[in-house]
């Protein structure tokens, strides 16, 4: 069985699979690998898009820069995304999404951070600062329902004093 770069003592880095969210140790100079968990191909390269680019799925563990003349129509999974041109589609970023002053994004964004420069435009739903699904902490157990004690009796809602609030 061939030895991996990590076993040979070479320079490695850890990337998170864009498909199954599992960590993978890869050679620092690798451009693509197969995930050790789900066996799907991981692209590790950075991309610079300066023209029209439409695909079914655009995933990379690296970074994507959509230049001023670039137009991406695809769901995007990325490390960091910089938008100077146009993006149409859902964006899931492990890091930051930057929408430049000339950038336009139409679609939902889920990222650790978002920066929109003055003049940049965004249309969609936003989920910021959340951990990726595989790294989220498990939810706390639901609190136990409070049992009424024998000393206090609940009063019916009709017995509660009436109050009114004027909003305006």
Protein model, in words:
The protein has two domains: 11-44; 46-129, no CATH class. It is mainly beta and 168 residues long. The radius of gyration is 24 Å and the shape is globular. The protein is built from one helix and 17 strands. Strands 5, 7, 8, 10, 11, 13, 15 and 17 form an eight-stranded parallel beta sheet that branches. A five-stranded parallel beta sheet has the order 6-9-12-14-16, with no helix packed on it. Strands 1-2 form a two-stranded antiparallel ribbon. Residues 133-140 and 152-161 have low confidence and may be disordered. It is 2% helix and 40% strand. The chain has one helix at residues 5-8; strands at 12-16, 23-27, 32-34, 41-43, 47-49, 52-54, 58-59, 63-66, 71-73, 76-78, 80-83, 86-88, 91-99, 104-106, 109-116, 121-123, 126-128. Strand 3 (32-34) and strand 4 (41-43) form a beta hairpin. The longest helix has 4 residues, at 5-8.
Task: Name the descriptors.
eight-stranded parallel β-sheet; 168 residues; globular; 17 strands; 2 domains
Biggest beta sheet attributes? 8 strands, parallel
- What is the count of DSSP helices, taking H or I runs of 4+ residues? 1
Whole-number total of structural domains: 2
User: Which band does the percent of strand residues land in?
Assistant: 35-45%
Give the distance, in angstroms, between the N- and C-terminal Cα atoms: 74 Å
Sketch the topology as an H/E string, one letter per element: HEEEEEEEEEEEEEEEEE
State mean pLDDT (0 to 100 scale).
81
Oligomer: single chain
Mind telling me the C-alpha Rg? 24 Å
């Amino acid at each position: 069985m061939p030895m991996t770069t990590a076993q040979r003592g070479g320079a490695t880095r850890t990337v998170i699979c864009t498909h199954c969210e599992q960590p993978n140790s890869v050679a620092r100079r690798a451009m693509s690998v197969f995930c050790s968990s789900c066996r799907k191909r991981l692209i590790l390269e950075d991309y610079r898009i300066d023209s029209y680019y439409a695909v079914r799925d655009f995933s990379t563990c690296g970074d994507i820069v959509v230049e001023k003349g670039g137009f991406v129509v695809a769901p995007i999974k990325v490390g960091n995304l910089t938008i100077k041109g146009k993006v149409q589609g859902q964006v899931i970023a492990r890091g930051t999404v930057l929408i430049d002053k000339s950038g336009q994004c139409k679609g939902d964004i889920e990222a650790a951070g978002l920066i929109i420069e003055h003049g940049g435009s965004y249309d969609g739903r936003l989920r910021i600062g959340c951990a990726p699904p595989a790294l989220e902490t498990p939810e706390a157990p639901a609190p136990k329902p409070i049992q009424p004690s024998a000393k206090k009796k609940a009063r019916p809602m009709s017995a509660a004093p009436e109050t009114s609030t004027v909003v305006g």
